[in-house]
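2024-03-11 09:14:02 INFO worker-7 job=invfold-0412 stage=load source=structure_tokens
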């Protein structure tokens, strides 16, 4: 909690004292209590699935839930893009009501792209990150699921609790 509070205060200090630099570089936070092992299998469930025989991609629609280790990703639709060489998934492109959960941390956005090999999730569109009762908003958040590091950019905003009269 102290680390998160320090990161938020440092980010806000940067925003208040150098707005253009803070917006260009983004604000760094940690995401997820536990890091995700990106070599773990990816479990996927949905109401419907259509497969493109040409490129091996699959479009999942309706109540899509993707689980890898401690990471949970849900969305209205997800396009599963297979690797062009070898077996396995290259990336997941989630659209509509995206929710990413890792440990007790949760992030919402309109869309997210998850590159499996690098373990990178890029969330875009009204991103809302909730951590231990604190919320951060931004236009984009990039999360490295291997390290748990996240960067928010594009009009980063938060509300800090008052001193309670002390």
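2024-03-11 09:14:09 INFO worker-7 stage=emit residues=166
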């Amino acid at each position: 909690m102290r680390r998160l509070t320090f990161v938020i205060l440092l980010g806000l200090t940067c925003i208040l004292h150098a707005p253009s630099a803070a917006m260009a570089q983004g604000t760094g936070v940690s995401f997820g209590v536990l890091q995700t092992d990106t070599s773990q299998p990816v479990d996927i469930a949905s109401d419907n699935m259509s497969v493109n025989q040409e490129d091996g991609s699959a479009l999942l629609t309706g109540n899509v839930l993707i689980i890898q280790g401690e990471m949970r990703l849900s969305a209205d639709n997800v396009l599963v893009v297979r690797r062009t060489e070898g077996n396995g998934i290259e990336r997941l492109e989630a659209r509509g009501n995206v929710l990413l959960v890792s440990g007790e941390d949760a992030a919402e956005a309109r869309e997210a792209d998850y590159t499996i090999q690098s373990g990178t999730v890029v969330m875009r569109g009204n991103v809302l990150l909730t951590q231990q009762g604190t919320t951060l908003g931004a236009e984009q958040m990039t999360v490295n699921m291997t390290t748990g590091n996240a960067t928010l950019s594009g009009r980063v905003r938060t509300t800090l609790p008052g001193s309670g009269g002390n």
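2024-03-11 09:14:09 INFO worker-7 stage=report msg="Confidence is low (pLDDT under 50) at residues 1-25."
2024-03-11 09:14:10 INFO worker-7 job finished
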